[in-house]
Design a protein that fits this description.
Elements lengths: L1 H13 L8 E4 L14 E11 L3 H4 L8 E12 L4 H19 L4 E6 L3 E3 L4 E13 L4
Parallel strand pairs: 1-2
Antiparallel strand pairs: 2-3, 3-6, 4-6, 5-6
Helix pairs in contact: 1-3
């Protein structure tokens, strides 16, 4: 389910017309990018997975295990674009995600600290999408 969840999010973003001006890539293996960035990039990858803990987990088998899958999304907006453009891209990514959130049963979308990356030459907006109560093995 981990790879299926990441793939569903990647497909929803890469095929969405709202993001036609951005390059949507898989986080790993990543594609080499021109530096400094010329177009916005949205990368999608697996942030992590965990199994349910406690006594309930002890009675679960691989066939009916429950857990959480975290999908990491990073938005990189080139320095040449204004800050408003980065926020517009964030808004469009969230709109594009709305179509897939119900299909993957996502419960939490967390926007982490927005910062400027000098090494990438871009404004970096990291997102975390958590999908809970799924079997990470299926």
């Amino acid at each position: 389910m981990c790879s299926k969840t990441v793939e569903a999010v990647f497909n929803a973003l890469s095929s969405n017309a709202l993001l036609s001006d951005a390059k949507v890539i898989r986080d790993f293996p990543s594609i080499k990018q021109d530096m400094p960035l010329e177009v916005p990039i949205v990368s999608v990858g697996l942030g992590g997975a965990s199994l349910q803990s406690g006594d309930e987990a002890a009675i679960l088998s691989k066939d009916n295990a429950l857990g959480t899958v975290e999908v990491k999304i990073s938005i990189c907006s080139p320095k040449s674009k204004a800050g408003n453009e980065a926020i517009s891209l964030l808004d469009r990514v969230l709109s594009a995600l709305s179509s897939v959130l119900s299909s993957v049963k996502a419960q939490i979308v967390d926007i982490e600290e927005i910062k400027y990356s000098t090494s990438l030459g871009c404004l970096l907006i990291p997102l975390s999408l958590k999908v809970t109560n799924i079997n990470p093995f299926s």
